[in-house]
Structure formats: structure tokens, C-alpha cells
Design a protein that fits this description.
Cyt_P450_CS, 10 strands, 509 residues, monooxygenase, 52% helix, Cytochrome p450, binds protoporphyrin IX containing FE, 7% strand, 3-stranded antiparallel sheet, metal-binding, oxidoreductase
Length: 509
């Protein structure tokens, strides 16, 4: 081979190599500049599912120490992202709220509600209409004011019943749950129903609901491995299908009983319409913008009954537990009550704004024991960037407020019960979700719409329990503040306490 024949070959080679080099350097797909978050490895197919521990909020907090404030884990084929810093949560619920306002309902929720209630319906016009209806028609301040008569009646019943139980053990959570359920049922019915029917429906509701709430809180393998969904390995779907008809029957009887009395029934709220009546009338207005059908009425009722009872009863149980554990706190609450309410009087809702220390005790309890520690998970409707990481569309996003509420970078002595921290700076901490260090009711478009009602239900009852009674633990019992994770985070060991009357009032005799 002579020199002339080598040149074209070499030239061709150089050109080819140059083209490859050019494409390699400049045209190769760019490395993802925003990687998906780091996270623990799991097993093939199952991901991290086999390693989940019962107290998910504790485990998620521990993992954040290793992987940072935004990390991922695969649960089966579902990519989950856990976020646990105030600045990143702000990016989710404020800066990119419309992307993250979707939900990811578990199979059990779909079976129970059909996914058409406010909690589980996807972000969009339907959800907006349902939520607006709920907030505007039912939770307006005039409606809340008018329904005080029912809350007060139930609180009086509680007091009378506790006087008869003086000196004996009371399961606080169970007792308060029954009370809050009655409050809700009476608000729905405007107090027109036969008390016996309320009692019957109430006790059946209690039984079905506690099972439902447990079911909703259980991680379900079928949610994470859709290929296994048809086998329903844990039997969760089967159990939800078994319970759903009983729940629907109870809602049906709630509605039909109200319809019977709608013509003749006189509300105790000075002729004001009760909640169920408002909903039933909207059902009749077929052409109106807000007209709804029976399935929507039942979905809203489900949210009110489930959202309004377990959460409020649970936080009261936690407050009572903290107050009993900290006698100096109990002393200060009772001093304040004596000063504001007076030893001859019973608590009224009008006293509440003046009970600043009780407010601080409640807020501190919400900080340490938020009833919904991971909020209700979100599902982004498109990929987005949070904290420099790509959060892929349709993953499940957990916002770990439990860990933020105990973050030493945010709170001094974070694990100690110190209500005074909320006295100094009370204006900075409300429940509306604008302070990203403190989010017991969530934040953004999906923030809890029941805050005002919850506050009224909790504060009045709590103040009454502490004003009229002294409480102590049964002999030999030690206070145990262990938590049990679920859709609502309850006290692991139910609080049993013994009431003794501090003050006697003739009206409760
Ligand atoms: C102590 C009492 C309560 C607590 C701690 C609480 C907490 C929460 C939380 C954390 C969320 C999720 C927020 C988010 O994803 O950002 C939520 C949603 C919701 N809550 Fe509450 N809640 C309470 C009482 C109530 C009451 C009394 C009602 C109604 C009667 C209610 C109805 C709802 C509804 C309908 C939603 C779904 C909102 C939506 O997805 O648009 N809650 N709640």
C-alpha cells in the first residue's frame, strides 16, 4: 500500500471519530441536572415495603437524618417522597400548590367514599365546588354561632355524666369521642331528632367508624403493588367492602330520619336551618350552581362525621394526658379558668378568647402530638423541582410535620412540653398553615376546612373538663405518652383517669 492511498482512509477515520466525539460531548443526552432525591435501597419488586415499621412518622424522621429533608423510597412499584423541612414544605404547599393539590386515595378510601368526598377527590372543579359548598353553607361563622346550642347541650350532658362517675375510672378518649359524635349529629340534625334515635345511630356509628379509621390508616400492599391488588393479601379491601354498606346504611338512616322531620321539625337554632336541611335543599335545586345529588350529600356527611370526631377526641385525650403529666400546667390552667370564668360559673364559648394559657396548652399539644402527623398525602399532577430534586408526576408525597414540630433547629427543647413558648409569640402561630414551622391542620389549598368548627368543639369541652373537675390517674398507674400511628395518631395506651368535682353547680345536680 503506497502513501497516497492511506491519506483518504485516515481522513475518513478522523472525520468519523470527530463526528462521534462531537455527538458524545455536545449531543449526548444531558445528565439529569435535578436528580430524583436520594433514599434507602429496598428489595427488588418490594422496595422498602418489608422494612416499614408501625410508627411510620418516627421511621420517616430517622430516615431524614440520613438522607436529608427530601428523600425517596420505593414502596413496591410506588415511588414515595418524604419532605420534612419548613422551607421545602413551603415550596410544596405555597409556591407549587396547584401541582401538589392532588390526592392519592388508597383502595380502602375508594371503596368507602367512591373518591367523591372532599378529602379524596382530585384537585379540580368538582373538589372546588364541594369544598366551597361545605365551607360557605355549613361552616359560616353565623352557622357556627347558631349551632352553639348543640355543643353546649352536649357539654352539659358530659358534666352530668361525669358527676355520676366521680371517683371511678373513665376512658377519656372513648368518652370524648361519643360526645363529639353527638355534637356532630346534633349539628347535622338541628336537634330535631328523637334522642333515642341519635343514641342508637351514634353507638352504631362509633363501632363502624373506629374500624374504618383503623382500616384507612393501614399500609395496604395492594396500593403499592397493583399486580397483587386482585389477591388483596391483607384482606383490607374485603374488610372495607364489608364495612362500607353498614356505614352507608347509617348515613341513609340519618338522612331519612331528617327528611321525616323536615316538614314539622323546629330547629333549636331559632328557626335556622340545620346542616342536613341545607344539604337536602341544595339537592332539590336541580338547576342551581350548587345543586348536588344524594351521593355527594353522603360524601360530605362522611367527611364531617369522620373528619370531625376522631381528630377532635384524640387531641382532647392528648391534652388531658399532658396536663395530668404536668401538674404545674394543670394548676395554671385552673387558675386562669377561675379568674376568667369564675368559681360560680360554667364555661361559655364567650370565655374562650380570654383563656390565653389554655390556648398555649392546646397549641403545644398540637405541636407534640399532631393528630395527622404526615398530613394527607399529596400526588403531584406533573413533575416538578423541590429542593433541587425532581419530584416525578404521580408519586406519593408525605409531608412529615411531626418531625418539623420536633426539629431542634426550629424549637428549643423540642421534646419538652412547654406551653409558654406559645404565650410569647402567640400571634405568630395559628392553625391556618401560614407558618411553615407549625402545621397541625395542613396548609395550602388542601388545608383542613374544619378548623373553626374543630376549635370550637375542642376548646369549650376542654375548658369545662378542667374547670369543673380535678383528674388523677388510677392508683399505681404511670403516664405513658407512646403514640400509635394511623390516619389519626392516637395514644397507644388509652388514657384512663378519675374525675372528682372541683365545683358543684345546681344545674348539673
Ligand atoms: C383536631 C381536629 C382536626 C385536625 C387536627 C384536622 C387536620 C386535618 C389535616 C392535617 C388535613 C389535611 C390537610 C392537608 O393535606 O394539608 C385535614 C383535611 C380535612 N379535614 Fe380536618 N382536621 C380536624 C378537624 C376537622 C373537622 C372538625 C372537619 C369537618 C367537620 C374536618 C374536615 C376535613 C376535610 C373535609 C378535609 C379535606 C380537605 C381537602 O382535601 O380539601 N376536619 N384535616
Amino acid at each position: 500500500m503506497d502513501g497516497y492511498s492511506v491519506v483518504p482512509i485516515l481522513t475518513a477515520l478522523i472525520i468519523t471519530v470527530s463526528i462521534f466525539w462531537y455527538f458524545w460531548i455536545y449531543k449526548k443526552p444531558k445528565k439529569e441536572t435535578h436528580p430524583i432525591p436520594p433514599g434507602p435501597r429496598g428489595l427488588p419488586i418490594l422496595g422498602y415495603l418489608p422494612f416499614l415499621q408501625p410508627n411510620l412518622h418516627h421511621q420517616f424522621t430517622e430516615l431524614a437524618k440520613k438522607y436529608g429533608p427530601v428523600y425517596k423510597l420505593w414502596l413496591g412499584s410506588k415511588l414515595c417522597v418524604v419532605i420534612s423541612s419548613p422551607s421545602l414544605i413551603k415550596q410544596v404547599v405555597r409556591d407549587q400548590d396547584t401541582i401538589f393539590a392532588n390526592r392519592d386515595p388508597p383502595i380502602s378510601a375508594i371503596v368507602l367514599t367512591g373518591g367523591i368526598d372532599i378529602v379524596w377527590s382530585p384537585y379540580g372543579q368538582y373538589w372546588r365546588d364541594m369544598r366551597k359548598l361545605f365551607v360557605r353553607e355549613m361552616l359560616s361563622s353565623s352557622n357556627l354561632e347558631a349551632s352553639y346550642v348543640h355543643r353546649r347541650e352536649e357539654v352539659e350532658k358530659v358534666v352530668k355524666s361525669l358527676y355520676t362517675k366521680a371517683g371511678s375510672s373513665v376512658d377519656i378518649g372513648e368518652f370524648i369521642f361519643a360526645t363529639e359524635l353527638n355534637v356532630i349529629l346534633n349539628m347535622l340534625w338541628g336537634g330535631t331528632a328523637d334522642k333515642k334515635i341519635i343514641e342508637r345511630i351514634g353507638s352504631e356509628f362509633r363501632e363502624v367508624m373506629s374500624k374504618l379509621v383503623d382500616l384507612l390508616g393501614k399500609p395496604n400492599v395492594s396500593d403499592f403493588l397493583p399486580v397483587l391488588a386482585k389477591f388483596d393479601v391483607q384482606g383490607i379491601e374485603k374488610e372495607a367492602k364489608r364495612l362500607a354498606p353498614s356505614f352507608h346504611e347509617l348515613l341513609d338512616s340519618l338522612i331519612s330520619e331528617r327528611m321525616k322531620t323536615i316538614e314539622t321539625g323546629h330547629s333549636k337554632d331559632g328557626g335556622r336551618k340545620d346542616y342536613l336541611q341545607i344539604l337536602l335543599e341544595l339537592k332539590e335545586q336541580q338547576d342551581s350552581e350548587t345543586s348536588i345529588g344524594l351521593p355527594q350529600i353522603k360524601a360530605i356527611l362522611m367527611d364531617i362525621v369522620t373528619g370531625g370526631t376522631d381528630t377532635t377526641a384524640t387531641i382532647i385525650e392528648w391534652v388531658m394526658a399532658e396536663v395530668l403529666k404536668n401538674p404545674h400546667v394543670k394548676g395554671r390552667v385552673q387558675e386562669e379558668l377561675a379568674e376568667v370564668v369564675g368559681l360560680e360559673n360554667t364555661v361559655e364559648e364567650s370565655h374562650i378568647p380570654k383563656l390565653h394559657y389554655l390556648d398555649a396548652v392546646l397549641k403545644e399539644t398540637f405541636r407534640l402530638h399532631p393528630p395527622i402527623p404526615l398530613l394527607v398525602p399529596r400526588r403531584p399532577n406533573r413533575s416538578s423541582i423541590i429542593g433541587g430534586h425532581t419530584i416525578p408526576k404521580d408519586c406519593r408525597v408525605f409531608l412529615n410535620i411531626w418531625s418539623i414540630h420536633r426539629d431542634p433547629l426550629v424549637w428549643e427543647n423540642p421534646c419538652e412540653f412547654i406551653p409558654d413558648r406559645f404565650l410569647k409569640d402567640s400571634g405568630n402561630f395559628d392553625f391556618t398553615g401560614t407558618n411553615f414551622h407549625y402545621l397541625p391542620f395542613g396548609s395550602g389549598r388542601r388545608v383542613c376546612p374544619g378548623i373553626l368548627l374543630a376549635e370550637r368543639m375542642v376548646r369549650h369541652l376542654l375548658a369545662t373538663l378542667l374547670h369543673l373537675f380535678d383528674w388523677k390517674l388510677p392508683e399505681g398507674e404511670k403516664m405513658d405518652l407512646s403514640e400509635e400511628f394511623g390516619i389519626v395518631m392516637r395514644k397507644k395506651k388509652p388514657l384512663i383517669a378519675i374525675p372528682s368535682p372541683r365545683l358543684r353547680h345546681s344545674k348539673f345536680a
